[in-house]
């Protein structure tokens, strides 16, 4: 990513907790100047205070981008802090909050890109879905895509409605995978392994399987490649495959439904 426009005009972050911090960490690692960044956050993390960004200082009048990364419930209280900005692209990562809420806060001519990233952005392995409002130009979408591509993959959505399903799948998804690691490790302990060894095995297994899945090979075929007829994997999968499809369907549906509720 060429950060020249952000370095020159500035980047503002409204809220810099787990998600804003994950993205900022990725951008700083990839060459964004800390001196170009202004963060508004009443409760900044220790990490943030050590980065050299401007914290809770007056905003530049016309930053290239303002990233909105506060909780949806804080939106009403937080957005007025950005009302003075002119000629700024707003990029929001908040779950649920629709594009229309930003038009209500900033006016119909405000250019807004709604994005749903995930926390692996912190290590450059995120995936983010984006969609712009009617005022957002192709150049705005390209700028947002460029920033988000610096911290992982980017996909563009056709309709804003798709954002709820994306949130339930890839936005929340890392938490499901981390829980898989936790439960695999616990299952290893139940089989007599030490907690440290079980966690090492579970973590490396998920990371390695993820890396293999990213080669593009069909995941069903990758599963078959592990599964010897009448072997150990088949015995395990006969248990897992009875429960997991329905469980995962209900898990993603519950998260997507919550995203719909957050629209207010
Ligand atoms: N954590 C995740 O995996 C993902 C989170 N998101 C979205 O990112 C947004 C932030 O979520 P997290 O980072 O997880 O929450 P968080 O609680 O870690 O971060 C929110 C930050 O906003 C700050 N804040 C609170 N009131 C504020 C105000 N009035 N002005 C400025 N800053 C204020 C808080 O001090 C905190 O640092 C949410 O809208 C969430 O839906 C989206 C995708 C993934
Ligand atoms: O849990 C949440 O509401 C946010 C949105 C996606 C991931 N975390």
Automatic annotation (TrEMBL):
The keyword NADP applies. It comes from Jannaschia pohangensis. The keyword Zinc-finger does not apply. The gene is proC. It holds the Pfam family P5CR_dimer. GO terms for cellular component: cytoplasm. Its EC number is 1.5.1.2. This is Pyrroline-5-carboxylate reductase. Keywords: Amino-acid biosynthesis, Cytoplasm, NADP, Oxidoreductase, Proline biosynthesis. Residues 12-96 form the Pyrroline-5-carboxylate reductase catalytic N-terminal domain. Residues 160-262 form the Pyrroline-5-carboxylate reductase dimerisation domain. NADPH binds at residue 56. It is an enzyme of class 1 (oxidoreductase). Catalyzes the reduction of 1-pyrroline-5-carboxylate (PCA) to L-proline. The lineage of its organism: Bacteria, Pseudomonadati, Pseudomonadota, Alphaproteobacteria, Rhodobacterales.
